[in-house]
Amino acid sequence: MEKKPERRGVIDTWIDKHRSIYTAATRHAFVVSIRDGSVDLSSFRTWLGQDYLFVRGFVPFVASVLIRAGKESGESSDMEVVLGGMASLNDEIEWFKREASKWDVDFSTVVPQKANQEYNRFLEALMSSEVKYSVMMTAFWAIEAVYQESFAHCLEDGNKTPLELTGACHRWGNDGFKQYCSSVKNIADRCLETASGEALSEAEDVLVRVLEYEVAFWEMSRGGE
Ligand SMILES: Cc1ncc(CNC=O)c(N)n1
């Protein structure tokens, strides 16, 4: 058996296999409505409040990935990639606070909706030391990639994204964030290359579950509270 250098990793194979849920997560009606300018601002405000709460729960998850990268990865660059993600979360929280005052959203009164709570519980479960590093990395990639793909779509040619929403789109749709997602994907693919069959099936399952949670997350914006 020869070991040929593959350009395509297992993640691309899984994305092809689970294309319909991947598309549902990255081309959701809410995202498409931002791109075509028909977005309902009460939906945007709902999303903003819920996403701020999500990000506050995501920080400890990324911190736990960072710790595992330091302990378990043979590659010293893994930790640097994750640390870069942590640093942008710091800016992101400040951005959310500025947006809150711009849109008159009071985060202190935002209550996490069911989809948000469930997603948060899933992240908490992934922080367990029993979860394999390759599985955590796969989840981490999927979470970041959905936002990158979704918001980059709102900036592609032909968009009618309202000017006041381009800040959000640039936050996750910019080329630096795309590069970062690609680095995280390379780490996950590298870990999965040597993973056991059990780890592979767990990682594939976690990938699909992230996509499902992301769809449910976008769905909350429809409520428009
Ligand atoms: C629900 C959800 N998924 C992914 C992201 C992107 N990661 C960090 O910001 C996000 N903000 N919210």
UniProtKB/TrEMBL annotation:
Q: What superkingdom does the record give?
A: Eukaryota
Q: Name one Pfam family in it.
A: TENA_THI-4
Give the Thiaminase-2/PQQC domain ranges: 16-222
PANTHER family to which the protein is assigned, alphabetical: BIFUNCTIONAL TENA-E PROTEIN (PTHR43198:SF5), BIFUNCTIONAL TH2 PROTEIN (PTHR43198)
**Which protein, by its recorded name, is this?**
Bifunctional TENA-E protein
Q: What is the lineage of its organism?
A: Eukaryota, Viridiplantae, Streptophyta, Embryophyta, Tracheophyta
From the UniProt record, report the name of the gene that encodes this protein: LOC104765543
